[in-house]
Each structure stands twice: as structure tokens, then as C-alpha cells.
Specification:
This protein is an all-alpha fold and 189 residues long. It has helices spanning 4-22, 30-48, 60-82, 98-122, 134-150, 167-188; strands at residues 91-92, 95-96. It starts with a helix and ends with a helix.
């Protein structure tokens, strides 16, 4: 928790600056902006749950548990906000758009797949160790979630509020770096 809370506060500060100050979103968007930071923190924790650390640090399973918990909060907040039409790009005439379908599919699949490593982490003697590896599949699927949501807003950079990159782009870059580290560690072992 001593690492996760400061990380979240940094991410939430970035989201507040980008959306409230840069995009000038009012107080009515406070849950929307908070949810962005929650999703970002969940994505970082999910990514870090596959990395091996050489020195004492948070255990991989702790990152996985935080990722699931933050992901669960993200799902609840997203469902709540969808009741108030916070996601007009995902729906057209009350129907899910093509990109909306893939955003929902990738998010649901990631969340459901994360249940397996969560159970294995919480009850190691009850569930098979192989379930931990399902978290890597969840990570791979979740790579597409922010890409589908935000790729249309990544360019041109002059459209970025206060020249701050979109969170979906930052998550995608973080996932890229994490995957490169993971593959390097995999080849070294």
C-alpha cells in the first residue's frame, strides 16, 4: 500500500490537470476523471505483476491483487457512469458501436481472466499454480483496451490539453515497456 497510494495520487493529479484544467471539465466529471486514474493504476499494477524484481520490493502477487481490486472499482464506476451517458463514443442510438463492443469485450475478458490468478494468490493451497499464468493472458488482452478507447485522440499532439498526452496512450506505452522487460527477462532465464 505504501507504493500504491503515492502512485495513485500521482496518476490522479495528472488526470485532474489534464481533464479539469486542460480540457476544462467541470465538477460533474469528477468521477470520470477519478475512474481514469483508477484504470491507469490498475493497468500499471497488472503490468508489474508479470515483472521479476531482483531486490526486495512488492511481491508480484500483491501487484496482481491490487490490479484486480482497482480493476473491480473501475468496472463499477464505468457501469455507474454508463447510466448517465458518459461514454457517447461507445454507443450510437443506445446501441453499442463496433469499437464499443471491442472495448467492452477486452475489458470483460481481462476482468474475468484476472479472477483465476486472484484466487490462486489468495488461496495458494486450493487452486493450481498454473492459474497465475492466466494473468499474462489478461495483460495481453488488456493491451487492446486502451488502444481501442483512445487511439483516435493520440494524434495530432496539438490537440492534447496542456500538451499532456492522453492516458490511453501512456498506458499503451507503459504496457510496451513492461512487455519488453518481460520478454528480456524471459530470454535471460
Amino acid at each position: 500500500m505504501k507504493y500504491i497510494l503515492p502512485l495513485f495520487l500521482i496518476l490522479y493529479s495528472y488526470a485532474c490537470i489534464r481533464y479539469h484544467l486542460g480540457k476544462k471539465l467541470g465538477v460533474e466529471y469528477i468521477i470520470f476523471v477519478f475512474n481514469k486514474a483508477i484504470a491507469w493504476a490498475a493497468a500499471i499494477c497488472l503490468g508489474l505483476s508479470v515483472i521479476k524484481f531482483n531486490r526486495p520490493f512488492i511481491q508480484k502477487k500483491t501487484f496482481g491483487i491490487y490490479s484486480f481490486t482497482l480493476g473491480f472499482i473501475h468496472v463499477i464506476l464505468t457501469l455507474f457512469m454508463s447510466l448517465f451517458d458518459f461514454y457517447p463514443t461507445l454507443f450510437h442510438n443506445s446501441l453499442l458501436t463496433g469499437s464499443g463492443f471491442f472495448v467492452l469485450l477486452s475489458g470483460i475478458m481481462t476482468f474475468l481472466l484476472m479472477i483465476f490468478p486472484l484466487l490462486c494468490s489468495l488461496y495458494p493451497n486450493k487452486y493450481p499454480d498454473k492459474w497465475i499464468k492466466i494473468g499474462k493472458i489478461a495483460l495481453f488482452i488488456n493491451i487492446f483496451h486502451p488502444i481501442i478507447i483512445g487511439y483516435k485522440n493520440w494524434w495530432p499532439t496539438v490537440t492534447w490539453p496542456l500538451f499532456l498526452p492522453p492516458i490511453t496512450l501512456l498506458i499503451s506505452l507503459i504496457y510496451t515497456i513492461i512487455l519488453l522487460i518481460y520478454w528480456k527477462q524471459k530470454r535471460a532465464s
